[in-house]
Specification:
- This protein is an alpha+beta fold.
- The protein folds into 3 domains: 94 residues, Rossmann fold; 69 residues, ATP-grasp fold, A domain (Dna Ligase, domain 1, 2-Layer Sandwich), CATH 3.30.1490.20; 232 residues, ATP-grasp fold, B domain (D-amino Acid Aminotransferase, Chain A, domain 1), CATH 3.30.470.20.
- The chain is built from 12 helices and 22 strands.
- It starts with a strand and ends in a 19-residue tail after the last helix.
- The structure holds adenosine monophosphate and glycine.
Length: 426
């Protein structure tokens, strides 16, 4: 098959790495890709949210299947658009109606409430109901959780300890702090527990497969301190996500989610990302995403033992049937190397050295994220998250020590990483 993968992050590097190993993949285009993805196929410069450009690329490259890596094109309706413009092409990714699970937190909460899916108690407010929102906050116990309804590049969630501050921030969010994204704000109860990320590949007809479970590390500083980032590392498996926990996840969350989508006639063929929290052994949903996670994918792809392409194809065709998705018994750990200053402002264009540090090493892979090749042919930094160093190990301790050994050999001005990824599991 000729495959087009949309996106440019570490997630897409890991997907491209996995897809390109398939005997069923005859050609792979990554659009736009990054400074490292050309080793898995061909980079094509286009904006994934430019739906016309994507449709043109599908037609002019005889693409058989599009795999949508990031949420923006899904929320913009790429799947519906291609169904009209290029009806033959298979698409891994939900329609715009399905993408609302990520694109609107208010929709996601209503959906979960209607389907009886365990999640934090909530109410939604707009500028007109600000005073009511302040009164609702006063009925909750701190900390207070405020979420912009729409996409806000991972920045739309505020967690505040103080009631007066939460009431003030609610007013500011509704006043346009995150633009149109926060015209509606979800206020919800704070849940206490450890988070994990569960990924489900579904075929839109009730069939699904669960991928290896991962945990990501969102805060910039060791000990989970400092501001949230896109993710500083990931590990898989996650010890507490054992058989008992995962049975609860399937029965209480995955099955009702898939049934709820079907009931609403939402055509959902693709990945569902369940951001879960383990509250005293009981899984609850923090959020839905409509794509794989980043950097979780950089660990999870190492643990998908089956060929991914037939699974993606079957999901996009609407019939996963009995096709197995085998998990690799080894552990995987990803350490993200980020630019100094991230998640605030940071310089770009720093030359990266040591990119061959894992060459010839079957246990470690350097997945490029925010990298580009400059006019001199040097690979340079071009984003906050730069390189995801991912390793296999017989257990997490071994996987982590391999990733850290390689992380030390990659160099660029300002290189920063957390040295406590996975610590609680080793
Ligand atoms: P979200 O964008 O919804 O994933 O929220 C970002 C982060 O905020 C989550 O990964 C959690 O760490 C935290 N968070 C969101 N909602 C809650 C909640 N109800 N209780 C506790 N933490 C939360
Ligand atoms: N790592 C969390 C996300 O991809 O949203």
């Amino acid at each position: 098959m000729n495959i087009l993968l949309l996106g440019s992050g570490g997630r897409e590097s890991a997907l491209a790495w996995k897809i390109s190993q398939s005997p069923e993949c005859s050609s792979l285009i990554i659009a736009p890709g990054n400074g490292g993805t050309a080793r898995y196929g061909r980079n094509l410069p286009l904006k994934p949210t430019d739906l016309d450009a994507v449709a043109d690329a599908v037609k002019s490259n005889s693409i058989d299947m599009v795999v949508v890596g990031n949420e923006d094109p899904l929320v913009a309706g790429i799947t519906d658009f291609l169904a009209k413009e290029a009806p033959e092409v298979l698409v891994v990714g939900p329609t715009q109606a399905g993408a609302r699970l990520e694109g609107s937190k208010d929709f996601a909460k209503q959906f979960m409430e209607a389907e009886g899916i365990p999640t934090a108690r909530y109410r939604s407010f707009t500028a007109d109901s600000l005073e009511e929102g302040k009164r609702f906050l006063a009925t909750l116990t701190p900390p207070y959780v405020l979420k912009a309804d729409g996409l806000a590049a991972g920045k739309g969630v505020l967690i505040l300890d103080n009631l007066a501050q939460a009431q003030k921030e609610l007013g500011e969010m509704l006043g346009g702090m995150f633009g149109a994204s926060s015209a509606t704000v979800v206020v919800e109860e704070f849940l206490s527990g450890i988070e994990c990320s569960v990924f489900v590949l579904t075929d839109g007809n009730g069939g699904y497969r669960v991928l290896p479970v991962a945990k990501d590390y969102k805060r910039i500083l060791e000990g989970d301190k400092g501001p949230n980032t896109g993710g500083m590392g990931a590990v898989s498996p996650v010890a507490f996500a054992d058989e008992t926990f995962m049975r609860k996840v399937e029965d209480r969350i995955i099955k009702p989610t898939i049934e709820g989508l079907r009931k609403r006639a939402i055509d959902y063929k693709g990945f569902i990302f369940l951001g879960l929290i383990n509250v005293a052994g009981e899984p609850m949903v923090i959020e839905y995403n409509v794509r794989m996670g980043d950097p979780e994918t950089e660990a999870v792809m190492l643990r998908v033992a089956s060929d991914l392409v037939p699974l993606l194809k079957a999901a996009a065709e609407g019939d996963l049937g009995e096709m197995p998705l085998e998990h690799d018994p080894r552990a995987a750990a990803t350490v993200m190397l980020v630019s100094g200053g991230y998640p605030g402002s940071y310089p770009k264009g720093k030359v990266i050295g040591g990119l061959d540090a894992a060459d010839g090493n079957p246990d470690t892979i350097l997945f490029h994220a925010g990298t580009a090749v400059d006019n001199n042919g040097d690979t340079v930094t071009s984003g906050g998250r730069v390189i995801a160093v991912s390793s296999y190990g017989k257990d997490l301790a071994e996987a982590l020590s391999r990733s850290y050994a390689t992380a030390a050999k990659v160099s660029f001005d300002g290189k920063t990483f957390r040295s406590d990824i996975g610590n609680e599991f080793v």
